[in-house]
Design goal:
247 residues; 12-stranded antiparallel β-barrel; mainly beta; Outer membrane phospholipase (ompla), Chain C; 3 helices; globular; 6% helix; 13 strands
């Protein structure tokens, strides 16, 4: 089953790409990333156990891959600039509580590992335990997802300050209207005093009567669009296609 949105951005314009890690790795101080690249995400989940404890709990595992592809960069053989891999597993409870017309449809607790699969000096990774509280009201769904990062040995930790930029929770909201889906994510803005946060907005829209593919627009500003850029402030806007969305 789909987990997070599955999409491809055929063109994503980054106003200020983060060149420093690649200059450090290559030893080329003049290396320049293209402002325009492709981006895609594949995200699936599988049930490991359903309707447990009187139909109140499920167990899921998921795997998400998000890649940033310098496909138009002829100078450096169109490399995959960054790929983030995130396996995770969680317990999902279905309390079915309603208050003020808002329905608490699911509460999750689980474990996630995320890394970019690189060697030093551009290796990045972190492990987290997380919760996720999901609510619905009409065509609106929103979630609050806090997490705690597991500490690592100092000599093994290649991003010890990652929570300064990624924070300890995010808020995600999605709204569906006449086949269009809009989403907005905010991360680490309140914690950092709006100095090291991130905001991502998306819009998926119908392509005529074809129901298996949608147009997709994604905008991002702030820190941590990818692991290699967790401490780099970037802004991007991209357009492409989505197979699945949040709603």
């Amino acid at each position: 089953m789909a987990h997070r949105p599955n999409y491809i951005l055929l063109a994503s314009y980054n106003a200020n790409p983060n060149n420093e890690p690649w200059r450090e790795q290559s030893g080329d101080p003049n290396l320049e990333l293209d402002n325009v690249e492709a981006q895609f995400q594949l995200s699936i989940k599988v049930p490991l156990g359903l309707d447990l404890f009187n139909n109140k709990m499920d167990i899921f595992a998921a795997y998400t891959v998000r890649s940033f592809w310098q496909v138009y960069n002829g100078d450096y053989s169109a490399p995959f600039r960054e790929t983030n891999y995130e396996p995770e597993a969680w317990l999902q409870f279905r309390p079915d509580w309603t208050f003020w017309g808002i329905k608490n449809v699911a509460n999750l607790i689980g474990f996630a590992h995320q890394s970019n699969g690189r060697n030093e000096p551009i290796s990045r990774s972190w492990n987290r335990i997380f919760a996720n509280f999901i609510f619905e009201k009409g065509n609106l769904a929103f979630s609050i997802k806090p997490w705690y990062r597991f500490s690592e040995d100092e000599e093994d930790d290649n991003n010890p300050d990652i929570t300064d930029y990624m924070g300890h929770f995010h808020i995600l909201a999605a709204y569906k209207w006449r086949g269009h889906t809009f989403s907005l994510m905010s991360r680490n803005n309140l914690e950092s005093g709006f100095s090291k946060g991130a905001v991502e907005g998306t819009w998926s829209f119908p392509l005529g009567n074809y129901k298996y593919l949608k147009g997709y627009v994604q905008g991002f500003t702030g820190y941590g669009q990818s692991l290699i850029d967790y401490n780099s402030n970037e802004s991007s806007i991209g357009i492409g296609f989505a197979i699945t969305d949040w709603l």
